[in-house]
Amino acid sequence: MTERLWSILVDSFPKLLWYGIKVTVPLTIFSFSIALAVALLVALIQYAKVRGLQQLCRFYIWITRGTPLLVQLYIVFFGLPSIGIRLPAFTAAMLVLGFNEGAYMSETIRGALESVSPGQIEAGYCVGLTFPKIMWHVALPQAFRTAFPALGNSMISMLKETSMAATISVMEMFRQAQVINGRVYESLGLYLEVALIYLVFCTFLTFLQRRGEKRLSSYGGKKQ
Amino acid sequence: MMLQIRDVRKKFDDLEVLQGIGFDVEKSDVVAILGPSGSGKTTLLRCLNFLEKADAGTMVFDGRTFDLNKATKAEIADLRRKTAFVFQNYNLFLNKTVLENVTLGLTAGAGMKKNEARDIAVAMLEKVGMADKLSSYPSQLSGGQQQRVAIARAMATKPEIIFFDEPTSALDPELIGEVLNVMRQLAEEGMTMLVVTHEMSFARNVSNKAIFMEDGRIVESGPSSTVFSNPKEERTKAFLRSIEFDK
Description:
The structure holds two protein chains of two kinds.
Chain A (H helix, E strand, L loop, with lengths): L2 H45 L5 H14 L2 H11 L9 H26 L3 H9 L4 H31 L11 H12 L2 H30 L8
Chain B lengths: L2 E10 L2 E11 L4 E5 L6 H8 L7 E6 L2 E4 L5 H10 E4 L11 H12 L4 H14 L15 H14 L4 E5 L7 H16 L3 E5 L3 H6 L3 E6 L2 E7 H6 L4 H13 L1
Parallel strand pairs in B: 3-8, 3-9, 6-7, 7-8
Antiparallel strand pairs in B: 1-2, 1-4, 4-5, 9-10
Helix pairs in contact in B: 3-4, 3-5, 4-5, 5-6
């Protein structure tokens, strides 16, 4: 490694890391929160078979899963202004990422809800709970445990997908690497460096996921 | 008269599982519902608590008449507040501790304060001998222990009647006794119980009424002593013989 490259990498590391912490991480957290809220709502509507809304949810999942994330980003950021809807780049990225991943996560949660034994729901009715209370106290906590590993995966892919926001001019970690590279032309070194930082972030998330799974297994069959 | 069941009918596709069931239950009755598998016993019990929607039939409970096919949500909720159900597979809430299993219906269901619910739950769990397992999860308990917690949960809401759906059928033989003892104790305290069971000794010794069902109909019913020692119907005799033979 040349001395020049080394000093470029050393100089850029704190900048990249700073943009990772300042933009990539919050973008992931906000988008994931949106995704989780959307997914819960959509999963519950489908599980409870709410007429009308159920079809709407199927439609949303169909559209979202059937079109590329990059295209969705372009439509929202570059396309919508032509009909008068102008969103800041960060907001556009946050919404698109959230609604995109929300579609996948809703299927994860719906599947997990459907795997809760019907006897659990019946027992809830028999002790005098209403449907929403059964969901809240019994079905969702059990479904969450089933869905947790898959939701963890979703969060990890979302962290990486935030790099797509670079294409609509969000100054996040990857975009910052591109900008530095535009000045110094060290593509291999810089992009490997930014890849390494993503890897560190994802490793941390994987660690959190393991911890979470351990905590959740404190009740129920898996322990024995 | 506490409970009057009239003309309950239920079809699954083309199979008529219940073909017009009717009987009466007085307060403090312990009614054993017997019969070969597939005779409709469990379906009957589930229809009475609206876990299954009957095609027709009425139930008079505490002076109020419920249409088993057309009851409103409010009526169903009202009825469920006064009844309790014990399942064959216990169906304890897997994500809740023993204590929470018993308090959930009181707090989230009946809106009771937490410490008040806790006192009731502990008392009920003491009754079934499970007060030393308050913070265990269902998966850490044996089948017999789970079923005793389920009975405590059923009693906690002070129901006027408890439906038992084959409460000992999923248990290992050596665990059946502990559950039957709890049920016997309940019966002695005057709890009204409707029990679908294969436990002939329980039916014979604890229940005061017995109903024998086959193919969705009541073949014979009456005081347990009569049904067991002096059955009139040939099918009842054959069933009782086959059971005795198994023992």
